Structure prediction request, 175 residues.
Amino acid sequence: MKNEFLIAASMATLFAAGAHAAPGDGGPKRGADMDRADVEARVTEHFQKMDADSDGTVTEAEAKAARETMMAERSGEMFAKADTDGSGAISEAEWNAMAEKRGGKRAGARHKGGNMMMRADADGDGRITLAEAKAPALDRFDRADTDKDGTVTAAERRAQWQTMRAERGKGRTAE
Prediction:
């Protein structure tokens, strides 16, 4: 179960990154319209980064290594953005400014997408193929493409996000 979670968390993070590529990385810009080819290209790019031995599958060890590398890169980027005076340290004022910029969210808050990878491993062999990796991303794309025009717009993505949040809220009970 621990192994499945590590793979799931790694792939979920990378798949999410595929839907929100940063400007200048060769992918669509954040908030830009995306078509199926964009989604497939992003998943393929992330999959290839994770497939360290280029054998066409991603194992737990590869997923864990890719996640650690990605998290280290993101941590460095976040630190550089927060250290606005370039002092090499984050002051309380810089920390508070960063938190305020993020809408008051904790800087360490994480996206939870744990079971995405478990669903992607269709044959349950503990290895994810490119076809298995693409399937959930394309399924999400198809659900978001509400007008079925082959393109998901920023508005369709927001609507999908709101629907997912509402569905998650249904399972919770007030205490």
Observations:
- The chain is about 60% helix and 5% strand.
- Helices lie at 2-19, 36-50, 60-82, 92-101, 116-120, 130-144, 154-170.
- Residues 2-170 form one domain.
- Residues 60-82 form the longest helix (23 residues).
